[in-house]
Structure formats: C-alpha cells, structure tokens
Fold:
Amino acid sequence: MSDRDFRLFSKLIESTCGIKMPDVKKNMLESRLRKRLRSLEIDSFRDYYDFLSSSEGERTEMIMMIDAVTTNKTDFFREPAHFVFLAEKVLPDLLGGIQSNRVNFWSAGCSSGEEPYTLAMVLSEYASNREHFNFSILATDICTDVLQKAYRGIYEEDRIAPISADLRKKYLLRSRDKSQGVVRLVPEVRSKITFRRLNFLDSSYRIEEKFQVIFCRNVLIYFDRATQERVLNNFCRHLAPGGHLFLGHSETINGLDVPLVQVNSTIYRKPE
Ligand SMILES: C[S@@+](CC[C@H](N)C(=O)[O-])C[C@H]1O[C@@H](n2cnc3c(N)ncnc32)[C@H](O)[C@@H]1O
Structure:
C-alpha cells in the first residue's frame, strides 16, 4: 500500500466510522484490507478504493470494509468494578426513583456480546430477589461479524473463565457434544437483549427509548476529540435525567463540552 493510498483509506475510514488511522497503523490496515482484495479478486489498493467510492461498492462493500477495520477485543466481566458499582450503587438508587421498575440499558459498541451478556447476568441476579424489577438491553455495534456472533450467544469454553461458577451454573448451557467445547447463554438471558447494527457517526440513527444506563467502553479511544464530543452529546440525548454513562478504563470526558458529572472513576451521571 503506497503512502498515498494509505492516506485515502484513513480519510475514508475516519469520516465513515470515526476510527483514527495514524501512520503507525499502516501495516495493520494493509494486512486487514488485503483479505478483502483477495476475496474480491481486486489487484491493487487503488482499485479497491475506487470500487468503494462507486455506488455499487458503497452499497455492497462498505460494510465489509468497516468490519475488517474495527478492533473488537472484549471479555466477559471486563473491568469488573463497573458491575459491582452498578449492582451496589446505581440500581438501588434508580429503583428508589423509578415508578415502573423497568430499566433500559444500552451496550453501545457491544462487540461479540460479552459485555451485554455480562450485564444481563448481573441484572438477572439482581432481579431474582426483586419481584418488580424488569430490564431490557439494547446492544449495538457497527461491525456485522461480531453482531452475528453476539446474536448466537455461543462461546468457546476458554472465554468463560471470568464468569463465576455460580453464574455459569445458572446462565450457561453446555452443548451435549462435549468435544465441541462451547457454551451458550440460556434463552432467558438471550431474550433480554436486542442486537442491532448502529454507527455512532450516523446522525440519523433512530432510538426512541431513553436509557437509565449506557455502557460505551473502549470505543471512544479510537476517535479524535471532536468526534468523542459529538458521540457523547448524542448519548446524553438518549440518557434519562439522572442516568449513568460508563466509559472504558482509559477514557475520560475531561476537557470535552458534555453535560455530565463524574461520580466514580470512568462513571458519569446526567444531572436531573
Ligand atoms: C474494543 S471493542 C469494545 C467492546 C466492549 N464495549 C468492551 O469494552 O469490551 C470496540 C467496539 O466498538 C465498535 N465501533 C467502532 N466504531 C464504531 C462506530 N462508529 N459505531 C459503532 N460501533 C463502533 C467496534 O466495532 C468494536 O466492536
């Protein structure tokens, strides 16, 4: 990939999905896009770029290109302190004030589903001794590959190490054929989550409901400051007054013009 081609792709990627492509990522981008060239039998990056810029390419290939450039690293119970704070502080406070006892969550940038399923297990535990507590989770990502995996809710056994034995017993099913080495989330947990493709940069994304809690962790680090501010202000419009936003461990709203107050490390609240 020539430097000129790299600049074309980095501009296109940043304007389409916000992901920054500094020079140090050139090798990574080249190897990820080479797979797309091979599968389309296109010979050069410039031809691939021209195809993406055509109306057919935009319609048929843009999603595949975005799938190839996203980084989807995730885990069950990633940053576990967040789930403790949720169960011990956020939920009790919320349920004091909510009439209906129904709480809406959004896992924004959910990757292959480990984050929303962790939420669903934690919330199911919370619901098990609170008769009137009910919840739903919207889980969105821009990448269609990971969304398909998330929707199936099937994981290799080596992925479930962070889940306690007690929760595994309640919420995971082993396949009859043990040699497959996979588990699946139980239907009651899967039914709590709606998966959907959504690009944070798409100004027209339609979400009707307000959320009491939004998790958007380890996504904003890929964006520049102006994009972070724009995406965060959109989240604020979808947060109910008093609602909480959880960011990833290395993310902050410091220096951004966003109507949120910090309540704990990487946890923010929208004033009532
Ligand atoms: C590193 S993963 C984080 C997953 C999970 N939140 C966690 O913390 O474990 C970042 C996710 O953000 C998604 N993403 C990147 N840009 C996006 C955009 N513009 N709109 C929606 N999702 C995006 C990626 O596809 C990826 O799955």
